[in-house]
Write a structure and sequence with these properties.
By secondary structure, this protein is mainly β. It is built from 3 helices and 18 strands. It starts with 7 loop residues before the first helix and ends with a strand.
């Protein structure tokens, strides 16, 4: 039977006979030529197919990093992060894999990093396939400040580090937020955030206003960092359940 080259139409038929048809190069007799459906021989990669070292024939897919994350991803400024966990997924087994330039095993999918972070750090996972194609993704551990909202009957001196740190809050990057608090008789609503986030506009019930700057001071947060904070106080007390929009 005349020799024939593999093409797309013959792939399904040949695949079923692959184990008996294809062989490692070391097992192919000298001068065997191109593999056919009748005998083993040489198979070469093309733009559409890859051939693994064991003779497995697959459709070529460019390497991709389908996901990459680090944990924790954000912490309060002033914290120390002793260990970062990086996790990733690829669309196929790479030829080489590294994290921030450090080599990894090609089958690894996670890594514990004892970096003792005190400031933002970006991690990069990079994978290379057998054809030299590369793919990479970044993930960053961020050190953030918090914004806080609370009710009480405080004057400027009464709003201390302890009061703010005990109040509800979350890590953020801006002052913009909508929140609802219940201010009882004699209680005001307070909103505190880093001074660097700028001057706010307050809206209550669709109307602008109702808040004034109470103080700006060097606040020591719960993680020990000192950050200049602005504290705003509602003009009126006893507002009951009130939704405040900060812009």
């Amino acid at each position: 039977m005349a020799n024939s080259f593999l093409d797309k139409d013959g792939l399904a038929h040949v695949w079923g006979k692959a184990k008996g048809t294809f062989a490692l190069k070391s097992e192919i007799p000298e001068g065997a030529g191109i593999a056919t459906s009748e005998r083993p021989g040489i198979i070469k990669p093309s733009a559409e197919f890859d051939v693994a070292e064991d003779g497995t024939l697959t459709m070529y897919k460019r390497i991709e990093v389908t996901s990459f994350s680090v944990s924790p991803s954000s912490v309060e400024r002033g914290s120390t992060v002793p260990t970062v966990t990086a996790k990733w997924a690829l669309n196929k087994t790479p030829k080489t894999l590294d994290l921030n330039g450090g080599p990894l095993g090609v089958s690894e999918t996670s890594k514990e990093l004892a970096d003792n972070l005190k400031a933002d750090k970006t991690y990069t996972i990079k994978a290379t396939d057998a054809r030299g194609a590369t793919a990479s993704r970044n993930a960053t551990v961020y050190f953030r400040d918090k914004r806080h909202q609370f009710v009480g009957s405080y004057d400027a001196d009464g709003v201390t580090d302890e009061v703010i740190n005990a109040a509800a809050g979350e890590l953020a990057t801006s002052r913009q937020k909508s929140f609802t608090l219940n201010a009882g008789e004699g209680q005001h609503i307070y909103y505190a955030y880093p001074h660097a986030w700028g001057t706010p506009r307050f809206f209550v019930g669709g109307f602008e206003g109702g808040f004034a700057l109470l103080k700006t001071f060097d606040h020591v947060n719960a993680s020990g960092a000192t950050v200049s904070y602005d504290v705003y106080k509602s003009t009126n007390a006893g507002l009951g359940s009130t939704t405040v929009e900060v812009r």
